[in-house]
Design brief:
Elements: H1 2-14, H2 21-32, H3 37-45, H4 50-77, H5 104-118, E1 122-123, E2 129-131, H6 132-135, E3 155-156, E4 159-164, H7 169-176, E5 183-192, E6 204-214, H8 219-234, E7 240-247, E8 250-259, E9 276-285, H9 287-292, E10 301-308, H10 309-317, H11 324-327, H12 330-333
Parallel strand pairs: 1-5
Antiparallel strand pairs: 2-4, 3-4, 5-6, 6-10, 7-8, 8-9, 9-10
Helix pairs in contact: 1-4, 2-4, 3-4, 5-10
Bound molecules: 3,4-dihydroxyphenylalanine (DAH).
3,4-dihydroxyphenylalanine binds next to strand 9 and strand 10.
């Protein structure tokens, strides 16, 4: 009967004696190793009838603890430091294990992806090292558009056609060239611009791009989806407003502001006392962009939007210096432990 066996083992464990580290190790192997007596007991435990499992389980745990304690106390009695090995206590528990924290940009990115995936968008990614076509030409940038300028774009010297993407809009083109509508994708990624690094600008940052192409897509659909997104991300009282703007790849184009979630729209330093902060650019996909990427613009329409993750993270967590995001100072990163 297993309970008797446990009792018998317990008595043996209590009476264990050893005078050298080798002897202690032998005892540890005999009782606590994978092939030891306690493991054998665990194997037997499987056959214990259900109604006895609770009690027997408790007894085995007690026994295990006793055996651990006994062997530890034998080690301690030995003085521990007689040889180099005993300085390492291999029986010491590894707990509590300190958990790492997610990077704030990852937290916000995941939240954005989560909101759009609930709306039926799937994830798409593209390369950070891109060609001019996907970043600019297929997105309807004129040859002399200033964004292509050396001051903005990082070029690979030997290959002027190969660049570091300056926006995630390039992924729109990557998706459209391989897939016909309906298209609903959300494309997060890192982008690069040749800017002097300061508290407010960095040579790399992160964006999320959205693209929706189907029949009968309207600006109203875009506005409704963005309103829902803003409320999900910043809370149900959030308001949005759209201002006319210009992007080569959308027509009409707009920039979207949300009511400042730091002051609730009353006005503060962050929103420059306007009550509003800009968070993204958007618009109806320019028919030429559809055509350039192999989609029939007489049959299909689309909307697109793009936002900077750093900016949204600033709004959510009030990080005042962009450089904090890439310095990986653990004191900064640990502040997001609770948000995990
Ligand atoms: N690509 C733009 C930027 O980097 C952001 C953007 C604006 C993306 C409007 C869009 C859009 O898809 O429709 O500033």
């Amino acid at each position: 009967m297993i309970l008797e066996k446990i009792k018998e083992l317990q008595q043996r464990v209590e009476g264990l004696q050893a005078t050298t580290a080798d002897e202690i190790e032998k005892l540890r192997i005999q009782y606590l190793s994978k092939k030891g007596e306690l493991s054998a007991l665990m194997n037997e435990f499987r056959n214990v009838p259900a109604e006895q499992k609770k009690e027997v389980g408790m007894r085995i745990n007690e026994l295990k603890q006793k055996a651990f304690d006994k062997i530890n106390s034998l080690r301690e009695a030995l003085g521990g430091n007689n040889d180099a090995d005993s300085a390492i206590d291999i029986t010491r528990t590894a707990y509590p294990i300190r958990l790492g924290t997610r990077h704030p940009l990852t937290l916000v990115k995941n939240e954005i992806i989560d909101i759009f995936s609930r709306l039926g968008f799937s994830l798409a990614e593209g390369p950070e090292i891109e060609d001019d076509w996907h970043v600019f030409s297929s997105m309807n940038f004129a040859d002399d558009h200033p964004a292509r300028d050396m001051q903005d774009t990082f070029f690979i010297e030997a290959h002027p056609d190969i660049i570091l993407r300056t926006h995630t809009s390039s992924v729109q083109s990557r998706v459209m060239e391989r897939q016909q509508p309906p298209i609903r994708v959300i494309c997060p990624g890192r982008v690069y611009r040749n800017e002097a690094i300061s508290a407010r600008a960095h040579c790399f940052f992160h964006q999320v791009e959205g693209l929706y192409v189907d029949q009968d897509v309207s600006f109203t659909d875009l506005k409704q989806v963005l309103l829902l997104f803003a409320k999900e991300l910043f809370g149900p009282d959030t308001k949005i407003r759209l201002r006319p703007s210009y992007f080569p790849f959308t027509e009409p184009s707009a920039e979207m502001d949300i009511s400042c979630n730091i002051c609730g729209g009353v006005g503060c330093g962050f929103c420059k006392h306007t009550g509003w902060v800009e968070i993204l650019g958007c618009g109806m996909v320019h028919p030429r962009v559809l055509e350039l990427n192999g989609i029939d613009s007489t049959k299909y329409k689309g909307y697109a939007f793009g936002m900077g993750i750093e900016r949204i993270t600033n709004l959510k967590y009030q990080v005042s210096d962009l450089r904090l995001f890439s310095e990986n100072d653990v004191r900064f990163l640990e502040e997001f432990e609770a948000a995990n």
